[in-house]
Amino acid sequence: MTRQLQPPAYPADRRRCDDEPEAQSAERAPSSTAALTAVPTGPATAGRTGAPSGLRAAGGVQALAPGTRLIHIGPHKTGTTSVQSALHNARLPMAEHGVRYAGRQRHSLEAAVAVTGAGNLLGGKEPLGHYWDELVAEVQQASEDRVVISSEFLSEADDAAMTQILKELGAERPHVLVTLRPLARILSSQWQQYVQNGLRTSYANWLEGMLEQAPYTKPTPSFWRRHAHADLVQRWADAVGADHLTVIVVDDRDRRMLMDTCESLLGLPHGLLQPLDHLANRSLTAAEIELVRRLNVTFREQQWPEAVYSRFIRYGSVLALQKRIPEPDEARILTPDWALDRAAEIGRRDAERIWAMGVQVIGDPATLGSRPAASGEMEVAATVPTDVAVTAALGAIRASGAVDERERPLERRQVSDVTVPDLAKVVVRRVRRRYRRMIRR
C-alpha cells in the first residue's frame, strides 16, 4: 500500500527538550500502515503558478525602502549564526551606511524568547520582559534608514506574538526575512542542537518520532513549528503581507550568497558583511555527540540542578568539543535513506506552496526538495575515543572556575585564550630574547 501523506500536529506546549518525554523504543511500523509526515497541504495564497524558481543572483535584489525594519526570523540551522555574526561584527561600517543592527549582542536571544514564550535553554536565565522592552525601545528610537533584528527563536511565535512583534518592531515598514535550507540537510544538525540542550533520545529514535510516529510531536514538539517551512512562511505572510516578506533559499555551495543577498536588501556595499568561520556552529562528530547524549542521560539520572547543566556541559564540555579539530576519518552522523527521502518529499511540497504564495523568493526553491547523497544507518558507539573524553572533561573543569587560566604562563596558552595586551607582552619578550642572542654572537 502507498504511504499516505499526513500533516504533523503542532502542540501549543513548547517545553524545553530536556523536559519532553523520552521517545519510546519501538519497531518501525510496517510500510503498509506507517504514515509519511508532510506539511499541511491547505490552500496557498493565489500568487504564482508553474515550476518554482527565484531570483538567481543577489544583483537582481532591490534594496528595501528607507524606514524599513527588517525582521529576520530564521528558522534554526539556516545560516542564522553566520548572518548574526557578520552583522554584529560590522556594526560600525553599517552605521556609516545608515543601517543599524539592533541589540547589544550577536543574537538577541533573551528578547526573542521573552516575546515568543519559546522554550529557554536548559539552565538559562528566565526570559524577563525587560529584554524585549529594551530591544523595542532601541528600534523605535533608531534614526538610521534601515534597522535589522535577527533571531531564529522568532520563528516560534504564535499569532498573538507575531502581531506584537510586527507592531512594536516594524513601525510602518516591517519586512520579514526567512532563510531556508533543504529539510534533509537540517535533520542531523537540528537533532544535535536538541542534544546540546539536554535531549537524551538517540538519533534513530528521534527520526522515528518526527517522521514515522503520529502525531509527530515527540520528543521535540518545537521541530515542526520551526521546520514546516511552507507553514512558517504562510503564517508570517498572512500577518505582514506577501509583498513584505522575502525568502532566501540558502545555497550551501556559495559561501557569499547569503551575505551578498543581505547586503543588497540593506543597501550595503558588496563585501561589507563577512562570514566568520570560527563562530560557525561546527557539527560534532558521531563520537562527540554520543558523549554529550550520555552525559544528558546521567545528568537526568542524578537529578542535578539545571544551572549545573548550563555551566558545566553546555558552556563547558560542549564548547570544548566544538573547538576541537576532529580527524578527517572520524565518523560523522549519518541519516538513513528512508528519512532523507521523506524530508526531500516534504521539501518539494514546501517549495511548491511557497512559490504559490507570491512572496519574493531569492535562490532556487526547487533545492528545498534535494537531499544529500551520503546516507547510512549510524551505529551508536559503545566506547568514546580517549581524546574526545579528555577534551570534554577539561572543558567542564575550565567552566568550573577552579582553574584560573591567567595563572598559566602566557607562552603555554593557546593564542585564542590570550588577550591582545598579553599577546603583545609575549611578542615583546620573544623579540628581546632574540635580540640578546644576536648581540652575544
Structural account:
This protein is an alpha/beta fold and 441 residues long. It folds into three domains: 5-282 and 335-372, Rossmann fold (3-Layer(aba) Sandwich), CATH 3.40.50.300; 284-332 and 376-403, no CATH class; 410-440. Helix content is 42%, strand content 7%. The protein has helices at residues 80-89, 91-96, 109-116, 129-141, 159-170, 187-195, 203-211, 222-227, 229-240, 257-266, 286-302, 306-323, 337-356, 386-400, 420-440, and strands at 5-6, 36-37, 69-72, 99-101, 146-150, 174-180, 245-249, 360-362. The strands form two sheets. The protein has a six-stranded parallel sheet, with helices on both faces. Strands 1-2 form a two-stranded parallel sheet. Helix 3 (109-116) crosses helix 4 (129-141). The radius of gyration is 23 Å and the shape is globular. The relative contact order is 0.16.
Q: Helix and strand layout, with pairings?
A:
Elements: E1 5-6, E2 36-37, E3 69-72, H1 80-89, H2 91-96, E4 99-101, H3 109-116, H4 129-141, E5 146-150, H5 159-170, E6 174-180, H6 187-195, H7 203-211, H8 222-227, H9 229-240, E7 245-249, H10 257-266, H11 286-302, H12 306-323, H13 337-356, E8 360-362, H14 386-400, H15 420-440
Parallel strand pairs: 1-2, 3-5, 3-6, 4-5, 6-7, 7-8
Helix pairs in contact: 3-4, 5-9, 9-13, 11-12, 12-14
